[in-house]
User: Which sequence fits this backbone?
């Protein structure tokens, strides 16, 4: 939900107020690219739940979730407009981005929608590309910036800092055995948009913030397995199992590395923790 998306939302809210109508955002789940090519689909920047919570806080009245399956993939652009937008929702005004494509084989475009609008079935507003300092704001650009840990640029494109939100689940206690207990967060996406070791602030459900060393990846020393986010909260003791935590990434420290011995891994974690503490003590 970057600034380009927020421009769309602002227009939706303005039109809803103008027409005394309800504001509604349509989401597809899974993302069409995940449906057609799950192994090569781009990393998600937000989970479905995060999107819905964001839209609610933004003031959107309703979210229509469309399950993207084979029947949806085969639905023609014209049928999508007639069945879902006109007869299903009874829309008054549709707000889209300039490059919006939809329907079977992505044959639907702004021109398709304009043909229906010309018949006065609904109003159509197509917004131009959204730029920040001459740079196009897009999910692709955000993924590129996240991959290299350019969190300040990411914040400019989002209008807020990038956060990952997840539920803490129980692990096997390897972090505690190393002397650095971690909160292990469940991924709701197929692919994470970033990997490595980071300095971050972890925020609990009450809003309490903890400076943290965060690792995102496959844990090569322990044999890989599923991708995980492990957060070591400095100066914290207690249980976080089942809690919802937000991870506010601040800077990227390094790639994930494999280590020849357990002692070498522990020594590097100690250095990472010291680097994180120094980073926050210096005021970032």
Assistant:
């Amino acid at each position: 939900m970057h600034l380009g998306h927020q421009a769309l939302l602002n227009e939706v809210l303005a039109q809803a107020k103008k027409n005394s109508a309800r504001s509604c955002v349509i989401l597809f789940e899974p993302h069409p690219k995940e449906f057609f090519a799950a192994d090569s689909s781009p990393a998600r920047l937000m989970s479905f739940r995060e999107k819905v919570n964001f839209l609610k806080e933004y003031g959107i009245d309703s979210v229509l979730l469309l399950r993207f399956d084979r029947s949806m993939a085969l639905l023609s652009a014209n049928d999508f407009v007639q069945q879902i937008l006109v007869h299903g929702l009874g829309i008054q005004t549709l707000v889209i981005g300039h490059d919006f494509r939809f329907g079977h084989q992505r044959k639907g475009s702004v021109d398709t929608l304009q043909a229906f609008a010309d018949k006065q079935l609904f109003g159509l507003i197509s917004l131009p590309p959204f730029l920040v300092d001459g740079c196009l704001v897009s999910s692709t650009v955000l993924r590129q910036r996240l991959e290299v840990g350019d969190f300040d640029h990411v914040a400019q494109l989002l209008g807020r800092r990038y956060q990952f939100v997840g539920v803490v689940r129980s692990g096997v206690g390897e972090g505690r055995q190393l002397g650095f207990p971690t909160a292990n967060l469940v991924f709701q996406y197929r692919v994470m948009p970033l990997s490595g070791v980071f300095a971050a602030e972890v925020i609990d459900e009450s809003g309490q913030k903890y400076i943290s060393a965060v690792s995102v990846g496959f844990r090569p020393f322990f044999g890989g397995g599923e991708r995980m986010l492990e957060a070591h909260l400095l100066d914290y003791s207690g249980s976080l199992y089942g809690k919802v935590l937000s991870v506010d990434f601040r800077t990227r420290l390094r790639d994930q590395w494999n280590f020849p011995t357990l002692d070498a891994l522990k020594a590097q974690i100690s250095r990472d923790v010291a680097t994180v503490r120094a980073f926050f003590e210096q005021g970032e």
Remarks:
- The mean pLDDT is 88.
- The chain has two domains: 3-130, 161-281.
- The chain has ten helices and twelve strands.
